[in-house]
Design brief:
alpha+beta; binds flavin-adenine dinucleotide; 16 helices; cytokinin dehydrogenase activity; single chain; five-stranded antiparallel beta sheet; four-stranded mixed beta sheet; FAD-bd_PCMH; globular; 31% helix; Vanillyl-alcohol Oxidase, Chain A, domain 3; cytokinin dehydrogenase; Uridine Diphospho-n-acetylenolpyruvylglucosamine Reductase, domain 2; Uridine Diphospho-n-acetylenolpyruvylglucosamine Reductase, domain 3
Length: 526
């Protein structure tokens, strides 16, 4: 076969790949006339100059920095497979991390001295410009792992359809959230996003390009879901769809008493059948603390005229608990939805007079965090450090957590200004064969401290996070971290608990040279 490169492109390609190879101490000679055609092609998609590797060296967290040697901009999954094959077959392999939208907060999508794969570069190049194909008859969408959930929403809404399980924020990639779990107020009823996948295409750490599902290559399927990027790179996921509602009734209720708040939450999530029309469509909860306004960057909800009375309530109690629920409706149900919501609210123990409602379009509701993001961006406050801590707490210990952490550490330190989420979900909606790790109890809470900090103040939040972890260890609260980050192998083994052996075995099976997602620091934390 004769290769025809334009001279400058050919020259650049050789230059880049030779440089990457030499930086990575790869000694294999480059034979461009034969089997390394793919490598040369690959080289044209690698950036190695310092300005180009600035972005994959950072993430939304703004705390960790790790420079890769190169940033790959694939135009098709085959480019990713070629890169993995290149590393896998080399005497000195290098780490490879898929970077979705880089919204990790602890360097999970980084690859120090390795290659980061810019998944988003495929978003507009693949499948004739679309990485989202909707099957109206079979009610699913085939979605590239690089796609953002907001684009999945928009593409499926065109057909009056939508996925059922979401994250609060939609500018995250499908591959990125499926590598964790993908949770939000729908999880109690539909399970996390990882419970809503029919099949996937995955490139393993051995460069095998496989389709997997519960029936085909099932070990890989379950490994990858919640697998922290350890077993393969997701290039396509098949997501089930349902008819999309048109609008939502969105209600917030305030509580000064934690026990009433959690009792009501638990009662509401006990109705959770996928087809149960009386079940809620969404349930979350959060803390309101003294920070000048009951709203925060994630949401502007409360009518301005009610701010003073909410603020004085917060001042009186230190913390107010806010329960947030939603019921969908469409043309068929618009006359009955208010009555249904009334029935849901009957018997709830919120503070009389502290109930607030909104009626908004379905898309506006799902994309509710976006306006806060744009506002922060316009003020230069989006790209700041985010020392986040996300935990799963068993139901039986959530009251101890409230007393020791919310009413103890958090109030005492008095530095928390961002959103703090707390809401329950049902274990039965998760599939234990998947890699994601959750507490053992049937009901557990997610607690998210979503701090934004100044560039020189993030350490105070880190100290608070450490205090919280220490408190839980000391008092025996059996938490699991969500979006986990640990620095020692012992901590990871403890995190996975009874799943560790399977997790490790799957790693040897699908990524035996430990190439993938080194930024998670699970198998390469020395
Ligand atoms: P990245 O940060 O780019 O990657 C995350 C990990 O996945 C890395 O290890 C990476 O190597 C791996 N990875 C990326 N793409 C692939 C792929 N295609 N195949 C295999 N591995 C891959 N999470 C929730 O569950 N619910 C929420 O409501 C929620 N809200 C959030 C709001 C904000 C503002 C932010 C910043 C994060 C939020 N998250 C939420 C967390 C988020 O889901 C995770 O951080 C997720 O990993 C981010 O997706 P990403 O595309 O940016 O992934």
């Amino acid at each position: 076969m004769v290769m025809s490169f334009q001279f400058p492109a050919y020259f650049t390609a050789i230059f880049i790949i030779t440089r990457v190879m030499s930086i990575m101490k790869i000694s294999k000679p480059l034979d461009v006339h034969h089997k390394d055609i793919r490598a040369v092609d690959l080289a044209t998609k690698l950036s190695v100059d310092p300005s180009a590797i600035e972005s994959p060296s950072r993430d939304f967290g703004g705390i960790v920095k790790a420079e890769p040697e190169a940033f790959l901009h694939p135009s098709a999954p085959q480019d990713i497979a070629a890169l993995i094959k290149f590393s896998y077959s080399n005497s000195v392999p290098f780490g490879i991390a898929a970077k979705g939208h880089g919204h990790s907060v602890r360097g999970q999508a980084m690859a120090e001295n390795g290659v980061v794969v810019d998944m988003r570069s495929m978003a507009n190049k693949r499948r004739n410009g679309t990485g989202i194909r909707v099957s109206i008859d079979r009610l699913y969408a085939d979605v590239g792992g690089e796609q953002l959930w907001i684009d999945v929403l928009n593409a499926t809404l065109e057909y009056g359809l939508a996925p059922v399980s979401w994250t609060d924020y939609l500018y995250l990639t499908v591959g990125g959230t499926l590598s964790n779990a993908g949770i939000s107020g729908q999880t109690f009823r539909y399970g996390p996003q990882i419970s809503n996948v029919l099949e996937m295409d995955v490139i393993t750490g051995k460069a095998d390009f496989l389709t997997c599902s519960p029936r085909m290559n099932s070990e890989l399927f379950y490994a990858v879901l919640g697998g922290l990027g350890q077993f393969g790179i997701i290039t396509r996921a098949r997501i089930p769809l349902q008819p999309a509602p048109k609008r939502v009734k969105w209600v917030r209720l305030l509580y000064d008493d934690f026990s009433s708040f959690t009792k009501d939450q638990e009662l509401l999530i006990s109705k959770n059948g996928r087809k149960d029309k009386s079940a809620l469509d969404y349930l979350e909860g959060s803390l309101l603390m003294d920070q000048g306004s009951p709203d925060n960057w994630r949401s502007s909800f409360f009518p301005y005229k009610d701010h003073p009375k909410i603020i004085s309530l917060i001042t009186k109690h230190g913390i107010i608990y806010c329960l947030e629920i939603v019921k969908h409706y469409d043309d068929r149900t618009k006359h009955t939805v208010d009555k249904e919501m009334e029935q849901v609210l009957q018997g709830m123990n919120y503070m009389p007079g502290f109930i607030f409602g909104k009626d908004v379009g379905y898309e506006e509701f799902l994309n509710r965090v976006r306006s806060g993001e744009l506002k922060l961006k316009s003020q230069g406050l989006w790209d700041v450090p985010h020392p986040w801590l996300n935990l799963f707490i068993p139901k039986s210990q959530i009251s101890d957590f409230n007393n020791g952490v919310f009413r103890g550490i958090v109030l005492e330190r008095n530095i928390t200004t961002g959103p703090v989420l707390v809401y329950p979900m049902n274990r039965q909606k998760w599939d234990d064969r998947m890699s994601a790790v959750i507490p053992d109890e049937e009901i557990f809470y997610t607690v998210g401290f979503l701090h934004s900090s100044g560039f020189d103040t993030w350490k105070a939040f880190e100290d608070q996070n450490k205090d919280i972890m220490r408190f839980c260890n000391k008092t025996g609260i059996m938490l699991k971290q969500y979006l986990p980050h640990y620095s020692t192998k012992e901590e990871w083994v403890h995190h996975f608990g009874s799943k560790w052996k399977v997790f490790q075995h799957r790693k040897y099976q699908f990524d035996p040279r430990m190439l993938l997602s080194p930024g998670q620091r699970i198998f390469n934390n020395n």
